[in-house]
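ok, trying the design again with the full structure, not the truncated one.
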């Protein structure tokens, strides 16, 4: 069983905060060389500094996953710097609220450009690298919203259903070529996105807590740990799944 990512190269999008940041720190602690990516350079460089202060190796590449040229440059720079990509955690995403009649084209395109095209474009450029090197692991961030319908967040729900479909399709396309592709599907997690969603309103916070049978929302490390498992050799026979990490949310 692989317990270390020593000398492995891990690329993480949406790594400047939340699940992405926590995962970057965890991969680095396990020995990986981590490429931290996101739109916010100050925050990204801070993550890199934290990793280096703990004796790890990391670099930051600014990229907006909604822009294919950024994604292509991100992948190219990762390969130029470290020679390969062993693990890609396509984690960048954005929340959205609004009832169907109120959704604008701009709302839709903003969410789908990041949540769907961002994942698709990332895989488009990561997969050729992994094919050339003989294999690799891709993990996409989905959501419990990718498994069910939810009122008031229809565009977000649709985007995460799309991530589920892309994950399964990519897994089927490359299963025989040494590339495993899976998704992780969190419920509500204590992140900046969650804070924006609830607005710090105590009633909203209690509502979200009570949606989970465990009686609380999750912590980012509770997603990072399953991500590291899916990326490891311990998960070598797992591809094409969406791992629910949701405090019992989808069991209801």
């Amino acid at each position: 069983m692989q317990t270390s990512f020593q000398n492995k190269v891990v690329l993480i999008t949406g790594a400047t905060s939340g699940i992405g940041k926590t995962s970057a720190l965890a991969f680095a602690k396990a020995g990986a060389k981590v490429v931290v990516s996101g739109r916010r350079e100050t925050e990204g460089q801070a993550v890199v500094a934290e990793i280096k202060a703990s004796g790890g190796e990391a670099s930051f590449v600014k990229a907006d996953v909604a822009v294919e040229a950024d994604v292509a440059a991100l992948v190219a720079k990762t390969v130029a710097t470290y020679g390969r990509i062993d693990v890609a955690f396509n984690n960048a995403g954005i929340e959205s609220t609004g009832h169907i009649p109120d959704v604008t084209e701009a709302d839709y395109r903003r969410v789908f450009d990041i949540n769907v095209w961002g994942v698709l474009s990332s895989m488009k450029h990561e997969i050729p690298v992994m094919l050339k090197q003989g294999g690799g692991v891709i993990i996409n961030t989905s959501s419990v919203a990718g498994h069910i319908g939810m009122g008031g967040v229809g565009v977000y729900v649709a985007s995460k259903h799309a991530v589920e479909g892309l994950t399964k399709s990519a897994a089927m396309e490359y299963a025989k070529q040494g590339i495993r592709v899976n998704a992780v599907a969190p419920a509500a997690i204590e992140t900046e996105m969650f804070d924006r969603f609830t607005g710090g309103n105590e009633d909203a916070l209690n509502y979200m807590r009570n949606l989970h049978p465990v009686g609380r929302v999750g912590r980012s490390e509770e997603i990072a740990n399953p991500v590291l498992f899916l990326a490891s050799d311990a998960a070598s026979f797992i591809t094409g799944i969406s791992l629910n990490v949701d405090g019992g949310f989808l069991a209801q």
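Keeping the full-length input from now on. The mean pLDDT is 94.
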